[in-house]
């Protein structure tokens, strides 16, 4: 193959380089993908600016990017579920398939999982990339490669709603209107929630939330107390939410969620904003509010794709900025600076992307 494989490689904090890497060869049950779109995640920005997330440290050069889609270029031996030319969404976490967690159907907890752009595993912000065929989800003709890339963060929202138990008639409080919060809002409405209220400290994000179907939006004023915000949530909903999905993960939202969720309800934590938070456990215990954690996703890509393909969830309004692969440094500069109020920034790796 005469083409070159332009690749975005993170060497250490604040050292992201565009380099030509060899085009990889697919092994058994793998496919070579001509990459379409890769959207920037907050974790990508954190690795770039800090060089680590918790115990995951960039010690060796790492290809960045994990919210992605592409087109099948070549089949490795044994691949039967795809053919050349298929357009796919790439589920970035490939588990071992043999441990107890995998066998129990909770492969997101697999301790040997390969996950794109999580040290030491390479990501896929490049012209060409090889991935396990069974973790490539074929896109219908009417679903774009941009939407395919956004299936990754949307699957987080779908998983959160499933963990929280969102169903027909649910009243849901979403804390935080960043990308994951907005996608959780979309998932909740598509899965039958009756009313969804979403909060944030940034007004322009809540304007987009209205376009995404939020029934109520609430800007949290500077200096507001948990009690004041909780009372305002009750006033808007005219009841207490069945479940709260916390996409921030800080002290304030943890306390708010546990205080305002109805007795017997669920407080589901998605956002990882602080290593430790203080919880009002006695209050939550008296009212039997369940606390559930949410990590990535598991068996959620098919539902996420169905919601997008059916038109029940429109993720396209979240795409606010587009760049080419050659413009990757500018794309990350925009993500870091917040210039132009970005929500989802999409990098197009090839012309057809």
Please provide a written account of the structure.
By secondary structure, the chain is α/β, with parallel strands linked by helices. It has two domains: 5-138 and 315-348, Quinone Oxidoreductase, Chain A, domain 1, CATH 3.90.180.10; 159-293, Rossmann fold. 29% of the residues lie in helices and 27% in strands. The protein contains ten helices and 20 strands. The protein has helices at 42-50, 100-103, 145-164, 179-190, 203-211, 226-237, 251-260, 281-286, 301-309, 328-337, and strands at 5-12, 15-21, 30-39, 52-53, 56-57, 62-63, 67-75, 87-90, 93-94, 114-115, 128-132, 136-138, 171-175, 195-200, 216-219, 243-246, 266-269, 290-293, 319-324, 344-348. Strands 3, 7, 8, 11, 12, 19 and 20 form a seven-stranded mixed beta sheet that branches. It has a six-stranded parallel beta sheet with strand order 15-14-13-16-17-18, with helices on both faces. A three-stranded antiparallel beta sheet has the order 2-1-6, with helices on one face. The chain is globular and about 60 Å long. The relative contact order is 0.15. The model has no long low-confidence stretch (mean pLDDT 96).
């Amino acid at each position: 193959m005469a083409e070159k494989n332009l690749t975005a490689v993170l060497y250490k904090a604040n050292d992201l380089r565009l380099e030509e890497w060899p085009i990889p060869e697919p092994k058994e049950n793998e496919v070579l993908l001509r990459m379409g779109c890769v959207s920037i995640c907050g974790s990508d920005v954190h690795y770039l600016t800090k060089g680590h997330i918790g115990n995951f440290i960039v010690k060796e050069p790492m290809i960045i990017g994990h919210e992605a889609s592409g087109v099948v270029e070549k089949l490795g031996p044994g691949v039967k579920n795809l053919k050349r030319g298929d357009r796919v969404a790439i589920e970035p976490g490939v588990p071992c398939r043999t441990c107890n967690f995998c066998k129990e159907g909770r492969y997101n907890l697999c301790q040997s999982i390969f996950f794109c752009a999580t040290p030491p595993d390479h990501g896929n912000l490049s012209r060409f990339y090889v991935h396990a065929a069974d973790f490539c989800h074929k896109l219908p003709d009417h679903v774009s490669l941009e939407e395919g890339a956004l299936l990754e963060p949307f699957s987080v929202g779908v998983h959160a709603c499933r963990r929280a138990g969102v169903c027909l008639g649910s009243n849901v409080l979403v804390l935080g209107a960043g990308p994951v919060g907005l996608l959780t809002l979309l998932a909740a409405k598509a899965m039958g929630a009756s009313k969804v209220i979403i909060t944030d400290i940034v007004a322009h994000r809540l304007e987009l939330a209205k376009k995404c179907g939020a029934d109520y939006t609430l800007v949290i004023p500077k200096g507001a107390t948990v009690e004041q915000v909780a009372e305002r949530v009750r006033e808007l909903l005219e009841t207490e939410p069945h479940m709260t999905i916390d996409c921030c993960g800080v002290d304030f939202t943890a306390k708010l969620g546990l205080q305002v969720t109805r007795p017997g309800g669920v407080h589901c934590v998605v956002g990882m904003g602080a290593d430790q938070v203080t919880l009002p456990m006695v209050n939550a215990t008296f009212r039997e509010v369940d606390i559930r954690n949410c990590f990535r996703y598991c068996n959620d890509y098919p539902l996420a794709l169905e919601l997008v393909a059916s038109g029940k969830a429109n993720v396209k309004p979240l795409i606010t900025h587009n760049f080419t692969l050659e413009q990757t440094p500018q794309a990350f500069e925009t993500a870091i600076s917040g210039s132009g109020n970005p929500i989802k920034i999409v990098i197009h790796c090839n012309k057809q992307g």
